[in-house]
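Structure tokens
________________
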Amino acid sequence: MAEVSMCRRRSSSSLSPEEERILIKDIALAAEAKSKEGDTFFLITQRWWQHWIDYVNQEHPDVLEHRPAGIDNSDLIYDAAAAEDTVEIHDTLLEGRDYVLLPQQVWNQLHSWYGGGPTLPRRVISSGPSRSEMAVEVYPLCLQLLLFPKAARSAIRISKKETIGELHKRACEIFDLIPDQVCIWDFYGRKRHALMTDIDKTLDDANIQMDQDILVEVLSLDNGGLSASKGASRTHNTELAQSQSLTSVKELDTAYGTTGVSTRGSSGGLTGLQNLGNTCFMNSAIQCLVHTPEFARYFREDYHQEINWENTLGMRGELALAFGELLRKLWAPGRTPVAPRPFKTKLARFAPQFSGYNQHDSQELLAFLLDGLHEDLNRVKQKPYIKSKDADGRPDEEVADEYWANHIARNDSIIVDGQYKSTLVCPICNKVSVTFDPFMYLSLPLQSTTTRTMTITVFTCNGSALPSTYTVTVPKQGRCRDLIQALSNASSMKHSERLLLVEIQNHMIQRFLEDPLILLSTIKDDDHLAAYKVPKLAKKTKYLQLIHRRKDQGSSDGQITSGWLPYGTPLLLSIPCDDEITRGDIQKMVHTMLSPMLRTESLDHTDISGVSSAIAASNPSGNLHGEACTDSAISNSMNNEMTSSKPVKSLKLPLQLVDESNACIDLSAGEEKVITLPSASSSSILVYTDWSQKLLDKYHTHYLENLPEVFKYGPVTKKARTEPLSLYTCLEAFLREEPLVPEDMWYCPQCKERRQASKKLDLWRLPEVLVIHLKRFLYSRSMKHKLETFVSFPIHDFDLTNYIAHKSNAGHQLYDLYALTNHYGNMGSGHYTAHIKLLDENRWYSFDDSHISPINEDDVKSAAAYVLFYRRVKSEDSFVGNGDLLCGGDNKVVSQK
């Protein structure tokens, strides 16, 4: 073999590095263009690949001393001496860090030049919900085949896109069985979940997981040996399988027993978790739970008797068992990192949203784990149905205790909730509703201030100024009247003017925000708003909307309306309903609105000088009131030049008015014709202006484009970094009274209607361990943002005494921080770590997947802090809440304000 490899290397030595690079590039591009499901890719070690890349890109191609040796993939596999068909790659490989995937044609060419190996082929499979995405299956399923009743076993690698029929066939080949006498079971968790009879179903569709067991059952025996009979029909086999599958669980456990993890004499806690590929979100959350002292003590003792095997709301004990087994491994003596693959397999089975190897939110995983473990360990076997009563004026203490008693009658485990008081007030009848609800954790907002900044562009209708963009500060829970007042002050509104606020979508006016009581919270950060200065008129008015359209670059020449698409920001003008309006009047109005954007070099052209008369009519003084922007001087000079020019032939703008029948009327002809305004049912008149390239050259139309978002997320300012946000301030923002959002309105029992009530939260009782989630991730309709705000949180003596509404029995509510998760980077490609204090050592450590290192307490605080774990400080006057440990429990829709 070595001789063949040497011959190959000699035969390729005639190619220069540049020639090798070009040839491989051409092969790769051709292969990529034809890639499809079922193709084969090959793993190649990143180390060798980088060596080859450096070789073919060297500046001095005549120097060949650094030519790579034969391909050596030994660092990707466990046993270099194993045969190629039995080679197993390491569990924790990452693409781009450990290996590169090469199309078959590229691998074949490189292998013909350099030789080496071993060869590691992998298939392209379909993935994603629509099965339209292609992915290379680097890790095919590894299944444990368990033969019954003969206690033999064998491991098998098989693609999750293979069928049940193929799995059945290969199992029979491995154990040398007759197919007609064999059935296979989904034996996940050593329990018979399903008889796998649908031979055309894929293993993926059958929800078969990595590293799980498959029970291979022989249906009949012949003199103590395996039967060789093939006479049974498929129907008979199915019936036989069902009748013979009643083998006792004890018998199977005897055949395939498992050993527990001994923790006697353990003083560990510094064992890392291997990253299985974007599983840092899981590792950080697990380490925080594992290092919660009450959790560690509970799961290292005999907790099996508390498992609720019948709870349909839980995972029938499987999640608790998997977590307990992992916790024991992490607390066992030794520092060898643990690969949490069995736990992740269980997690994926019960929470498919966490399957695969994509990045996820560690807080969402934490919420699932707390709730799932609570249900698996719930001591209440039969949950009673209890209908909650309203307070109806009763003392808070009485109502709170009643709600708490009802809650613990259904929820009793090591994981226990906190409780808050929720007060709703109807804005119409002033009906007050008080309830006391459990919470899993406190989810605190980072926008702690009572104000928000909003960016809006203001347009004038009389040609007096260019559009100007203003950023104003308004109350976060304010109304449209607050925004209009702030814009009026910023834009120096005249007494004879008013502002009309609208929302723009797809270059059209989506809605008029005329109601001054509209809540600003209904306006999202990624909305686009515009405001128009219109005169205050005593007469009834309609709005003329000037919609801009531009020729679609992909369309062919045709009629004037074909291929025209809306663009830019519409302009708006108010028109008295009782006045007689001609086509020429609308031409003048539009000329007036567009006049500030007219290019200076166009003023000398005779076909546009008629604009001056329209401006003179609307602004007799000849003065332009420009806004505070760099273009105001240009606007003034344009006006002076225009008012002094002599009227000649006017430019006819290509305007089209939409009448009541949705027909377009050409306004470029028949100036004296009177326009019939739409009926009273319509408040707007639509006029389209079609911008040809010739017309675009005459105006600065960029003022109409790129309408800014209400709030654009960007880098954290210096001010934000130098003035840290306090955790207390975040808590106060969470507890502050505010109106419900329109999508979550409250049904008032007195009004018998849904009302936008005000809501106030108060903390009533706190658990021994308090979990606080900082809401760094914000989701809007079109994008996701991460807030990099630094939050100053106390490590010692986090005092919540003054935030407890239950004053008569509170005492001092002091907490110390013992763990937290951190998130670095952006939402798509970030990384999670954990900072944890080992209480026995009184020392902090950084847990970064498998790497653990000591850190100073001063290094615990950072802008990456995401989920905080606090533990109550024991003192004589501390009020001990009902329950064992954490916030968890039955109520999932809480702490979301």
